[in-house]
């Protein structure tokens, strides 16, 4: 049976024995010992007890584990789910295809729904039968986590025929052969990497290398060597000369995912590469030159990062010569049904079971749900529905049980709603109603609607299509809303995309 000494390392000494790796994150040694003992016959178990230790373990592994079993209540707040929720997001930032199962004593339904929205595949309340858990892990491992082939045209990997997707395809085609950097922003789970790959595939560089580096997945002390390479003897463990990503990309495309995680002290070196192509391997004085095109992605608001001193303004302006904003899933109209069908049919084929169908009422609910976790959330909901209801018609009640009602969708470019001082919006509304005898709900809602539309137009520099995406609307709907509110359309920007 594994002991506490196993925390933070592989329980099994030999990492090449063919068993898949499983990361267990729980601060209860009785839980980790019990599950480590039961599961180690099928998995190479890695045990950690905190969020920070889990991320260190992931970064230290040559190959990340495909599976994780995560407790929500972790130190330093073991009686709250915050650390567990944060860990789910961080694990998926490091390993987007990781299948995460939450095993928690905090069995509130809202916690389960929110964990799934963040990207967890399933949520189990403690105690759980080890045999059932083992079968669930094996089932999760057998699922192909990759997004389905998303083609409706021969040139694009993006799925869909909505106006937002068609505009995105047109923008990619326009920018593909430009030599300048592109910054892809958007909410987590929207598929920013698909844009980077399409930019490469549709360019004249398509026969050159296409490399991806996740800046969040590498320890800060190692990322400089990964990017620029190093000379033999440059640091402990540097036993030979090694090229970095900038060299290996040659004249192709280098996709820097999670660019907001790049350490501040390395940002001037990346800026130098963007300005004149020059860089140095760690431990060398001879300059080398990069010919690759840089595409970067982030789900952070880099302008806020600049204001807080975490990101350099000059680097941001170099990276964002062109900016591509990914539309959230809630803006993609009936593409949400098409994506569900693609994921459902893939899971159905893998399991050999008949596909489920949505009842007419459930279909309408599907089209009105905001999907705050975007495509990743849609995929996981589809997997659960297919697993629970193969060959059946899913009712609105059965669908509702899989949806998250506790999370408002967020955008990296939108200002968050201002909460009450005590964090309770209901209490804030009560105070406003108590202190304002002339309160009118319609007037208040109209004022807020005008404010959000004006904010979106400012952020989009008057471009109606981009403002509509920020608001989760179609452009025609935004026109109608503005006309109804008596708002003037921006001069010269109404048709800009």
What does this structure look like?
It is a single chain. The chain is 42% helix and 12% strand. With 497 residues, the protein is an alpha/beta fold. The protein folds into three domains: 4-142, 3-Layer(aba) Sandwich (Rossmann fold); 176-325, 3-Layer(aba) Sandwich (Rossmann fold); 425-485, Homeodomain-like (Arc Repressor Mutant, subunit A), CATH 1.10.10.60. A six-stranded mixed sheet has the order 1-3-2-4-5-6, sandwiched between helices. It has a five-stranded parallel sheet with strand order 8-9-12-7-13. Strand 5 (99-104), helix 4 and strand 6 (122-125) form a beta-alpha-beta unit. Helix 2 (51-60) packs parallel to helix 3 (82-94), helix 18 crosses helix 19 (464-471) and helix 19 packs across helix 20 (475-485). The longest helix has 19 residues, at 441-459. Residues 1-14, 147-155, 408-423 and 493-497 have low confidence and may be disordered.
Principal-axis shape equals globular
Total domain units: 3
Task: Kindly provide the radius of gyration, computed on alpha-carbon positions and rounded to a whole number of angstroms.
Answer: 24 Å
In the CATH hierarchy, the architecture of the largest domain is 3-Layer(aba) Sandwich
Per CATH, the superfamily of the largest domain is: P-loop containing nucleotide triphosphate hydrolases
Oligomeric state of the chains? Answer: single chain
DSSP strand count: 15
Give the low-confidence spans. Answer: 1-14, 147-155, 408-423, 493-497
What summary fits the major beta sheet? Answer: 6 strands, mixed
Please report the distance between the alpha carbons of the first and last residues: 60 Å
Strand content: 5-15%
């Amino acid at each position: 049976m594994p002991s506490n000494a196993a925390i933070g390392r592989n329980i099994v000494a030999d990492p090449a024995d063919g068993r898949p790796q499983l990361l267990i994150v729980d601060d209860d040694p009785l839980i980790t010992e019990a599950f480590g003992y039961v599961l180690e016959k099928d998995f190479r178990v890695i045990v950690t007890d905190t969020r920070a230790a889990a991320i260190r373990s992931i970064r230290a592994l040559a190959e990340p584990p495909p599976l994780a079993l995560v407790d929500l209540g972790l130190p330093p707040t073991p009686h709250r789910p915050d650390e567990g929720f944060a860990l789910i997001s961080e694990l998926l930032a490091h390993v987007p295809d990781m299948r995460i199962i939450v095993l928690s004593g905090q069995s509130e339904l809202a916690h389960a729904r929110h964990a799934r929205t963040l990207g967890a595949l399933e949520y189990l309340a403690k105690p759980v039968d080890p045999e059932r858990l083992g079968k669930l892990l094996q089932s999760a491992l057998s699922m192909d986590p990759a997004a389905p082939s998303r083609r409706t045209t021969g040139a694009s990997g993006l799925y869909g025929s909505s106006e937002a997707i068609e505009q995105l395809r047109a923008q990619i085609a326009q920018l593909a052969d430009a030599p300048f950097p592109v910054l892809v922003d958007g909410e987590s789970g929207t598929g920013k990497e698909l844009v980077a790959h399409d930019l490469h595939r549709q360019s004249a560089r398509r026969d050159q290398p296409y490399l991806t580096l996740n800046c969040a997945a590498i320890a800060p002390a190692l990322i400089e060597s990964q990017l620029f390479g190093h000379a033999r003897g440059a640091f402990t463990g540097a036993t030979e000369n090694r090229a970095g990503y900038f060299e290996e990309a040659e004249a192709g495309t280098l996709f820097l995912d999670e660019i907001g995680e790049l350490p501040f002290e390395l940002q001037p070196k990346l800026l130098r590469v963007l300005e004149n192509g020059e860089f140095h391997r760690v431990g060398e004085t001879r300059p080398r030159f990069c010919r690759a095109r840089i595409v970067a992605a982030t789900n952070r608001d880099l302008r806020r990062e600049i204001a807080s001193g975490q990101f350099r303004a000059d680097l941001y302006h170099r990276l964002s010569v062109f900016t591509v904003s990914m539309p959230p899933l809630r803006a993609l109209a009936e593409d949400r049904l098409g994506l569900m069908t693609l994921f459902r049919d893939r899971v159905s084929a893998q399991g050999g079971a008949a596909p489920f169908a949505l009842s007419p009422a459930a279909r309408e609910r599907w089209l009105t749900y905001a999907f705050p976790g975007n495509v990743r959330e849609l995929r996981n909901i589809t997997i659960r529905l297919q697993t629970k209801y193969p060959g059946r018609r899913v009712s609105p009640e059965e669908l509702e049980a899989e949806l998250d009602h506790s999370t408002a969708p967020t955008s990296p470019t939108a200002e968050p709603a201002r909460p009450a001082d005590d964090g309770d919006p209901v209490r804030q509304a009560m105070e406003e109603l108590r202190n304002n005898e002339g309160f009118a709900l319609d007037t208040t809602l109209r004022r807020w609607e005008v404010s959000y539309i004006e904010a979106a137009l400012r952020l989009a520099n008057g471009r109606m299509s981009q403002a509509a995406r920020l608001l989760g609307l179609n452009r025609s709907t935004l026109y109608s809303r503005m006309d109804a509110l008596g708002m003037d359309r921006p001069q010269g920007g109404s048709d800009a995309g």
